[in-house]
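Project standup — Tuesday

K.O.: blocked on the structure for the chain from last sprint. Re-posting the sequence here as requested.
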Amino acid sequence: MKKLLTIRILFIFSVLFYGFTLNDSKTKTFYSLSAASKTPKDVYKLDLMFKGYNEFPNQILEFKNLENLILRGNQLKDLPIEIKKLKKLKILEILVELLLQVLV
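H.V.: unblocked you, prediction finished:
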C-alpha cells in the first residue's frame, strides 16, 4: 500500500511539473528554419532531423538563444567554426561519423 501511494504521488507530481513546463516558451521545438526565422529570439530548440541538408545551414547562427540543436539524419560533412558563436548551445545532436571527423 505504501509503494502504491508513493507511485501515485510521484505520478501526480510529474503531471503537475510537466503541465508547468508546457507553458514555458523554452519548451517549444521548431522543426523548420522558415518557422524559426519568424521569431529568432524565441528559438531555444531546433529539430532539423532528416531534412536532407548536405551543408550546415548558416541561418542557424542567427538563433542566439539556441540551446538544443538536432541535426541527426543529415549528410553534413563538417561544422563551421562559427558554431562557437552560439554561446547558449548546450546540446548538439549529430551523426557519430561527423563527430569523429571533427575530433580527428
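K.O.: great, moving the ticket to review. The chain is about 35% helix and 10% strand. The longest strand covers residues 45-47.
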